[in-house]
Amino acid sequence: MKIIASPSKYIQGKNIIENFKSIVETFGKNNLIIADSFVTSIVKEPIENSKGSKDTKVSFNLFNGECSKNEINRIVKIVNEHNYDCIVGVGGGKTLDTAKAVSFYTKKPVVIMPTIASTDAPTSALSVIYTDDGAFEEYLMLPKNPDIVMIDTEIVSNAPTRLLVSGIGDALSTYYEAKVCFDAKAIAMSGGQSTLAALALAKLCRDTLLAEAYEAKISSDLKLVNEALEHIIEANTYLSGIGFESSGLAAAHAIHNGLTVLPETHHMFHGEKVAFGTISQLILQNEIEEAKKIITFCKKIGLPTTLEELGIKDNIREKVKEVSIASCAPGETIHNFPYKITPDMVESAILTADALGKL
């Protein structure tokens, strides 16, 4: 069985927040917006003044910062009390995951509006649940993708450039992992094998990044929206989102997960660690020339290519062994390879990636 999963509608453009009410009112006139205090200060006025029916109402509820069961249950109660027609998540990953979870438990449609382009999570049928203290608890697999994902590229252009670059690092892995899963006929998060369409979108994601990421980074530095930035936001969010969910993950994300066992890497963003994982995966596949090409790309846009840049500066062999063992834990996505991957193989790949990254 082959499956491709995607949001029902993806909308992207400069200043599309001006059309906010006209977009969400297709689901009803009474809408709840979940956003933290910082994001609310940015979007509240333009949303309230956006185009749409005079009867369309928007109510804001401040997100407390963690996508936890207590926070989800708190908002579910509010939705049920006020009988909101639609849930809208505006902000970063934890806000968006909370909105998706609330939508699931209340059986209401959900609109997702990222204000950064740092991951491919907005389009997915998944929420990552944490404890109230911020520790990972579980994955909540959702029966459907968001009804609408909308991105105002003007808002994204004003976010820190490091977040955009981190998103590029996350998206960079999409094709290489998708191709491994496609060849191995692995089962993706969508519940089936990859389609040709999903693999093609994953390849388009990679090609778009290599062609336009540097120009988009400059655009972000200058807080400007140009065609390159538009293309990279789409690649980071939509192309990568469809590619990973409908094709699958492999070594790059498993190595990212392995790196998280080291406290000194915790200051690094998800995509920054995934980028190093991508280089390591290419070494694991003996794709040395491709790995060198990706190292050059990463250096140009500011993604880490060495263990030292990730914060790992002493007891290197010992720590890499620890990362390698964690990367190969039962259930890890590295087992989507069509052949057996061992911790020794991962250790060798990581150390080789680090050596090449220093050149």
Short structural summary:
Helix content is 52%, strand content 12%.
Description:
The protein has 359 residues and is α/β, with parallel strands linked by helices. It has 2 domains: 9-157, Rossmann fold (3-Layer(aba) Sandwich); 161-357, Dehydroquinate synthase-like - alpha domain (Dehydroquinate synthase-like, alpha domain), CATH 1.20.1090.10. The protein is built from 13 helices and 8 strands. The chain has helices at 20-24, 37-48, 69-82, 93-106, 153-157, 161-184, 196-221, 227-247, 251-259, 270-284, 288-301, 316-327, 343-357, and strands at 9-13, 30-35, 57-62, 86-91, 110-114, 126-130, 136-141, 148-152. The strands form 2 sheets. Strands 1-8-5-4-2-3 form a 6-stranded parallel beta sheet, with helices on both faces. Helix 9 packs across helix 10 (270-284). The chain is globular and about 60 Å long. The relative contact order is 0.12. The mean pLDDT is 96.
Produce the secondary structure layout.
Blueprint: E1 9-13, H1 20-24, E2 30-35, H2 37-48, E3 57-62, H3 69-82, E4 86-91, H4 93-106, E5 110-114, E6 126-130, E7 136-141, E8 148-152, H5 153-157, H6 161-184, H7 196-221, H8 227-247, H9 251-259, H10 270-284, H11 288-301, H12 316-327, H13 343-357
Parallel strand pairs: 1-8, 2-3, 2-4, 4-5, 5-8
Antiparallel strand pairs: 6-7
Helix pairs in contact: 3-4, 6-7, 6-8, 6-10, 7-8, 9-10, 9-12, 10-11, 10-13, 12-13
Spatial extent as radius of gyration: 20 Å
Number of strands: 8
Identify the CATH class of the largest domain: Mainly Alpha
Name the structural class: alpha/beta
- Secondary-structure element string: EHEHEHEHEEEEHHHHHHHHH
CATH topology annotation of the largest domain: Dehydroquinate synthase-like, alpha domain
Share of residues in helices: 40-55%
Strand order of the largest sheet: 1-8-5-4-2-3
CATH architecture of the largest domain: Up-down Bundle
- Count up the domains: 2
Distance between the termini: 44 Å
- Would you identify the CATH H-level superfamily of the largest domain? Dehydroquinate synthase-like - alpha domain
- Most strands sheet: 6 strands, parallel
> Judging from the principal axes of the Cα atoms, what is the shape?
globular
On the 0 to 100 scale, the average pLDDT is 96
Count of separate DSSP helical elements: 13
How large a portion of the residues is in β-strands, by DSSP E? Answer: 5-15%
The stretches of 5 or more residues where confidence is low (pLDDT under 50) are: none
